[in-house]
């Protein structure tokens, strides 16, 4: 594993938030990694293994996940809140712009941030999310998010996730599933394994009404003309091929669509195709930066 530093900063409303920092050059935008709904900075270990050193890599734990503090008011577990947290981090570190790598919720946060302040985005990889999502995927996520679980050890946890999500990563062997749960879960003092997020993050997600969701397509305007990669799992039940194709059409020739074969929602960056796509994006960012 590439060496990193655990660092913290305070959100505007006083919550202590955590991010990993992997060293890299200061004369180019860093790679800023934003995780999915129930995930954390550990998800991006494969990204750091691939590009840290050549690029500075920052991987954030959204509030209520990983080593970041929980929000005492669950109503603030919203994408707009996470956008403010990301901007606070960038401002505190004096970072003018970054290459955003956002998985699912992290990709939505990237699109929202670009809509608010497009100059902060040097490039973006949007992983398995778009302005429209498939209701089937949303219902699947609602079925498990915010429900506490406990396992006796890592092997048992890996087996449980393989049984529940085997259709998402059908080619994975037991070792891959254990690696997956070590990113998603934490070990208690008694040796039991639990999910590493505040169960209250489910409250605003579960209350969302799909019929009243705003039109998010205009958010792509903030990414127009920038190097963008749209990453999609071939088996994704959240991000349809039709939405992915439309995103690339609207973003134009600066955008690349990469479909990762044999995986669902969402590609984990353990796939060679995902890392190759990221490398191509970074090469395009470097060219655009001159």
Automatic annotation (TrEMBL):
Entry-linked InterPro entries: AB_hydrolase_1, AB_hydrolase_fold, Carboxylesterase_BioH
Segments forming a coiled coil: none
Record's keyword annotation contains Nuclease: no
GO molecular function terms listed in the Swiss-Prot or TrEMBL record: hydrolase activity
Highest taxon of source: Bacteria
Keywords: Hydrolase
Residue stretches making up the AB hydrolase-1 domain: 31-277
Protein name: Hydrolase
Record organism: uncultured Sphingomonas sp
Taxonomic lineage of the native organism: Bacteria, Pseudomonadati, Pseudomonadota, Alphaproteobacteria, Sphingomonadales
């Amino acid at each position: 594993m590439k060496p990193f530093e655990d660092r913290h900063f305070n959100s505007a409303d006083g919550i202590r938030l955590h991010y990993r920092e992997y060293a890299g050059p200061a004369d180019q935008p860093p790679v800023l990694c934003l995780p999915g709904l129930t995930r954390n900075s550990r998800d991006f270990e494969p990204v750091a293994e691939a590009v840290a050193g050549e690029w500075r890599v920052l991987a954030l734990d959204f509030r209520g996940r990983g080593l970041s503090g929980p929000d005492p008011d669950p109503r603030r577990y919203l994408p707009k809140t996470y956008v403010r947290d990301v901007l606070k981090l960038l401002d505190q570190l004096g970072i003018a712009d970054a290459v955003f790598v956002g998985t699912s919720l992290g990709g939505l946060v990237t699109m929202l941030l670009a809509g608010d302040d497009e100059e902060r985005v040097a490039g973006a990889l949007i992983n398995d999310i778009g302005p429209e999502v498939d209701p089937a995927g949303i219902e699947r996520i609602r079925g498990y998010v915010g429900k506490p679980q406990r396992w006796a050890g890592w092997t048992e946890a890996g087996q449980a996730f393989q049984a529940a999500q085997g259709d998402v990563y059908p080619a994975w062997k037991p070792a891959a599933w254990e690696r997956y749960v070590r990113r998603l879960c934490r070990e208690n003092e008694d040796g039991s394994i639990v999910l590493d997020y505040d169960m209250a993050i489910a409250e605003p997600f579960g209350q969302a009404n799909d019929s009243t969701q705003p039109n998010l397509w205009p958010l792509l305007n903030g990414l127009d003309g920038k190097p963008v990669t749209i990453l999609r799992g071939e088996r994704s039940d959240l991000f349809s091929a039709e939405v992915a194709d439309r995103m690339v059409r609207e973003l134009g020739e600066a955008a690349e669509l990469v479909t990762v074969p044999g995986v669902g929602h969402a590609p984990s960056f353990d796939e060679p195709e995902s890392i190759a796509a990221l490398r191509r994006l970074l090469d395009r960012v470097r060219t655009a930066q001159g």
